[in-house]
Each structure stands twice: as C-alpha cells, then as structure tokens.
Design goal:
Elements: E1 3-6, E2 15-18, E3 28-37, H1 43-47, E4 62-70, E5 84-87, E6 90-92, H2 98-101, E7 112-113, E8 125-129, E9 134-135, H3 153-162, E10 171-175, H4 181-191, E11 194-199, H5 205-211, E12 215-218, H6 224-230, E13 234-239, H7 244-251, E14 254-262, H8 283-288, E15 292-295, H9 301-314, E16 320-323, H10 328-335, E17 341-345
Parallel strand pairs: 10-11, 10-13, 11-12, 13-14, 14-15, 16-17
Antiparallel strand pairs: 1-2, 3-4, 3-8, 3-17, 4-5, 5-9, 6-7
Amino acid sequence: MPRFIQVKSPGSGYTLTTRPKPTPSPSDLLLRVLACGLCGGDEVSRQGLMPNMTYPLIPGHEVIGVIEEIGAEVRGERWKVGDLVGCGWHAGHCGVCDVCRKGNYISCSWAHATGATRDGGMGEYISIHATAAVSIPASYTSDPVAAAPLLCAGLTVFNCIRNGGAVIGDVVAVTGIGGLGHLAIQYCAKAGFHTVAISSSSAKREDAMRLGAHTYIDASTESVEDVLRRLGGAKLVIATAPSCPLILSASKSLALNGSILIVAEPAPDPASSSSVISANLELLPLMLARSSVRGWTAGIPADNEECLRASEMLGVKCEVQRWPLERAEEAYREMRKAKFRHVIDMSM
C-alpha cells in the first residue's frame, strides 16, 4: 500500500502511514510523486492555521510528479499520461468571487491550498485539480528534486521581483540568505539589478557573493541604513527573513517610490503559536520617499511556468539537501538550521 506522511491533528508533527492510492475526481489528475519540497509554509498544516482544514492531513506543497491518470472531465489536450508536472501552494480557485472575476486567483476568497485545505504531496501519490497543474520543463526530468522548491520558494521571490517596481540597474536588497533569499539573490543578480544581501552576521557572506550579490551588509557590524543610502537607496527590499530591526533600517533607506515586500512569516512563538511581529516604523521617511511596506505571496500555475522557464534561461538553481520520506519529521525540524532547502526525494 502506498506510503504517506500525515499530520494527525494540529501540533502533532509528521508520522509515516499507509493508505490506498487516491481516487482522482473527474476534474483531477493523479500524480505519482517524485519529489516534495519542505517549506516554512508547511507550518500551516502542522498547526492548523487556516479555516476549513480537516485532519488527518497530508502536507507538502512543492510537488513534482508524473501523471498516471486523467479525470474524465479534464478538458483539452494539455495534459497526457506520463507528463512531468508540478503543483504549488495554489490548489484551485472558485472563479466567481470578486477577486477571481478580476483575475486575482491567488487571493480567491475560497481558494484551496495544497497540503492545507487539500491533501499535499508528501507521499507516493497526490490527486490535484487540473487547473492547479504546472508543466515542468524537460530539462528537470533527470533531477526533479531540483525543481520542487521553485514551485513555492522560487515563485514567491520571482513574482515579488517582477512586480516590485524595480528596473535594471536599480538597487534591490534581500534580507535573509536562506531558502528564499539564496534564490532571490540569483534572480536579482542575473536580471541586472545591483543586488545587496543583508544578514545578521558575516556567516553568509561567502555564499551570498558566490550566488551573485554585489554588496553584502553584515547588520551586526554595519549600518544597513548608511550602506543603502550610499548606494542611492533601495528601490526594492525583499524581506525573506522577517526581522524587525532590518525592516526598520531598510524602511529609512528606500529610494523614491521604493518598496519593502514581506514574503515570509517568522516561525511561530512556541508559547502562543503566534507568528506576529511588530516593527515601529518611522512614518516620515516613508512619506517623504513615497515608499511602501506590503506583503506578497506566491502565485498561480501560469506564474509558476514562467518562473521555471526564467530559472532555466537564467541558470538559477536551488541548492537542496535530499531526505527520504520516512525521515520527513527530522528533515522539517532541521530545516530552519539548513543553509537552503530540504526536499523529500522519493527515489531514496
């Protein structure tokens, strides 16, 4: 019987189980899973942080697999048995709410989330709605593990950069040099931005410069505000590791019409399960520079396909550590200590 990782109830962690192969609905595709990335967003399934979640639940929303079955109501000839496809956070939308009618499907009032309101991909099979499927370029066929994190971590920073208002030659800063940050640095540098990596110590300097950063700021010994101002101010700051001091410093050194985009939540406080942080932003610098602080989330399947194509063309690569399915709980617990991304490799 196929193996899966499940969360039995909120707060219970990951356990290995067996269950029958999912039966796809008429509008679904059944995938045999090849790889599933681990992500900080998996805390949603571990803690029950969204409405309409039911348990036990299979987590995982950075999924790469091969189509084994196609539902009878899936239209057109886009998908064929044997195709390499993926599925990210976006698992489907209603199509009729106000935001859907304006094409903002990722913000659908009734959107499903892979591994949260629908079973995810941390197992041998997953059934996904056909509208959530992402076509994976053939170049990833030999190593699907390398593509899995691009479906969430990669997409999040890729979409943030191309919607952030910066143009080639502008200063773009990345706070946090981890799973999202190491991808953001590559996208920014390869796309022609003056790329600034900001971290709380000197430990990531060598990695950041190797990945393409032009400037590195060690916030423990340098003033983020002063360095960014000397560079002319940051047009865009991508906050991949929310830190009140770094966000506060960056907010005072934005270029005219600059933005800080927050793309990740901090880890929940174990005592309260809350991921709320507060930064006492100084409003006058924001007003004078006409700048903004806002949030950003991943995207829809079409965005994901554009992200994968861009990653392929630019040579952006996710650095991963591979884990077998049965060690998923260990992989998750070690994830926040990791340099970059952890991925469940179903071939192990």
